UniProtKB/TrEMBL annotation:
Native species: Salmonella enterica (Salmonella choleraesuis)
Taxonomic placement: Bacteria, Pseudomonadati, Pseudomonadota, Gammaproteobacteria, Enterobacterales
Top-level taxon: Bacteria
Family: Belongs to the nucleoside-specific channel-forming outer membrane porin (Tsx) (TC 1.B.10) family.
GO cellular component: cell outer membrane
Name by which UniProt lists this protein: Outer membrane protein
InterPro entries, alphabetized: Channel_Tsx-like (IPR018013), Channel_Tsx-like_sf (IPR036777)
Amino acid sequence: YLDWTSDTTEKTSKKSHKDDFGYLELEGGANFSWGEMYGFFDWENFYNGRHAKPGSEQRYTFKNTNRIYLGDTGLNLYLHAYGTYGSPHRANFHDDMFLYGLGYNFTGNGYWFKPFFAKRYTDQTYYTGDNGYVLGWVAGYSFSLGSEKFSVTNWNEYEFDRDASYAAGNGGKDGINGAVALWWNATPHLTAGVQYRYADNKLGESFLQDGIIYSIKYLF
């Protein structure tokens, strides 16, 4: 459940309509000798109608990232696709993002830090074309307190040199998007988490938008 701050909801009420919403998510990943894959699919506002008022309508969001290892160098070919839609057939709003670039994996005892630098292409309702660059990372650290297992994670994306047409509706030529999370691995199959979600000059607005995400995950 994403609980936007009241300031965010109020300031976005005329344009991007950041209302609180619940969502169902299917998430997964895999590691191979040649690389790694990760992805999720979200069904947002699943309890509302497809054409409810802006901010309350059903939405569908996916993300897929792939890292193809370049031998034993630690470098990898980074490929990333993201899309969000206002209806299954994109009748209302869509925003697709494709990234291609290079990444690097730093891993150690209980921690990981995986930065990347990529070129971006956008296919959106209001703009389609090359759209600058993204410098980002995923990072995490796993630890125990007594017999309980926890992890702290962060994903962050800094966009810059965005196309002028896109920048006009998103606060300028650069912006930031991400989340910091604390996860409690309560059992081998059950995880609970709290995330601080943030975006600045992003998501259709020219100011900071933030909120808290409350999650319960079942691991198959």
